[in-house]
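Form 7-S
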Amino acid sequence: MRDGRLTQDPGLQDPDLRTRVAAGLEAARRRSLAYTDIDDAELARQHSPLMSPLVWDLAHVGNYEDLWLVRALGETAATRPGLDGIYDAFRHSRASRAQLSLLGPDGSRAYLREVRGRALDLLDRLDAPSGGGGDGDGDGNAGLLAGGFVYGMVIQHEHQHGETMLATHQLRAGPALLAPGAPAPPGRAVAHREVLVPAGPFTFGTSDDPWAYDNERPAHQVNLPAFWIDTLPVSNRAQIAFIEAGGYDDRRLWSTAGWQWREQEGLTAPAFWWRDGDTWLRRRLGRVEPVPLDEPVQHVCWYEAQAHARWAGRRLPTEAEWEKAAAHDPATGRSHRYPWGDTPPTPDRANLGHRTSGPAPLGAYPGGASPCGAEQMIGDVWEWTASGFTPYPGFRSHPYREYSEVFFPKAGESSTFRVLRGGSWATGAPACRTTFRNWDYPIRRQIFAGFRLARDAD
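Output:
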């Protein structure tokens, strides 16, 4: 930006991109409003110290949009002064946010409408002539606008908070949030339990995807030995076998930190599970139901995944192995945005965006298989990997340090976070691709996370 004017990117003058941006903003907002269409007292309540009050999330997505789609693109005044500090995710812990002077439900919704009106007005104004400029990178806000990046960032951010709000609903002791959703395709048995990923180089990360976050960049070559990876994620049936074999009680299967956490929390099964006689039950968004044996297991922490892998004589894949299995096409030498190619997800290829209200049965998406034959790598459950969250060689923060850089370990230290890949049934499609990196503490269980297993090739 120079002299308060917008630096245009030709891509946003493309009517198709502009239409997609407007539709993407609207779709993300529909989710936010649907997940907060409950009693006002429930919106304001702190349902768990792990999560913010839902009303905080609601206004936070508006404040983020105000920062990046209004003020960063040329407007100087905040839509509502005085809110930045309240809705700064790095200033206040989740457990403390209920004590802040938050906007109420009606005020939050009104704030979102005001911000969205200003943001859409600026989107319309991108057709107007504008000058170049400099903001330290030498190209004004062209880095924000290139390929619609800043719009993609805001769309993805709101979808990420939609998934966070669903995790809050999973934790709250209230009636069911929504109807069960569309039925998932039927599962099927797969021909091979695991598939071989041959040795060799592949392109890890991306430099070309206009909506990719800074931690996915830059693309670089990684050479991996051959390895085997499971065709499908670990099932509830397999987790029950681990439980019944005494896996939660066998100290030998757990790391020192994992065993300490297992002992402290009394872990005996995935979160939200319990046994009623010979039947395992689970609570899912306010409903109690038998645990479906042939769905991917979810609500397990990294320590549980690691212990299960040791019990099975396997290991968790590294995130590089996961991405190669999901994205690399040995016939062309290219890595794809999705396992099936570069076309956007469709309901017959992946379970995303809360189309269903949980993971689909294993084997439900043969059309979503990657070139190596691995299935359900996008959607259903986030998959824990063995890797800590660290920067790629040549990493550069963009457009702010607090998205990725502050979570990386300091020099000489190891990461306290573990990387998850692939998205879940609750993940919005714009926030899911083979290069997308999620991360969390290894103790987290409220997130919609499972895992798949790998082993070295003999």
